[in-house]
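Q: Two folds, back to back.
A: First:
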Amino acid sequence: MEPTKIEIERRRGDTWPLVFVINSDRRPLNIAAWTNWRMAINPHRSPTDTSEQIAELTGELTTDGRDGRVTFPVPESLPAGAHWYDVQGTDANGADITVAFGQLKVVQDITK
């Protein structure tokens, strides 16, 4: 499975969750048996370690997993700026798989 590149832009302070739909052959993949969903956010595109990592979010299946949806709560404390992220889960065979990656732009909000 090749990971999907997705560019995300959101306002600093917004707390609506990020929802990813994991697809295979353009159809939602049944991820009911997948575990350990995580989304790492880093200021660097190719970090060598986690020393500057901004956040690691924990995802949960949105429903029973048959629709391929996984949800990540996003803290309002994410700093404004252009960051990089990837999303990984552990499949039923125990393999860690990156399913999405890209740039996460957090734009400074006017309302405080």
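A: Second:
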Amino acid sequence: MKVARFHQHGGPEVLVYEDVPEPKIKANEILLRVRACALNHLDLFVRAGIPGMHFHLPHVLGCDIAGETRHAPRRLRSREIRPAPSPGPNGHPGARNNTRARTRAGPA
């Protein structure tokens, strides 16, 4: 699969478009095919580097995605599936993208 990511902090010149292996999902995860991805200012700040904060590199950009389920464990297929918030660089949910959606099933 293709990803836009960076291996070091900096300006737009550090962005690379690369092939990566399809992620292996766990029993409580789904695999999404991303059809649209929005970048926001957090992506720009993370790419540039935020003093005092550590980010796992390489880092895949794009916090806000839309797509379709590519694979879901059988036990999740008949239930509501919604993304589980993942902690971002400042501890707030929804600010991390690691190429797979962590999910939980059931009512909100």
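Q: And?
A: The chain has one domain: 2-105.
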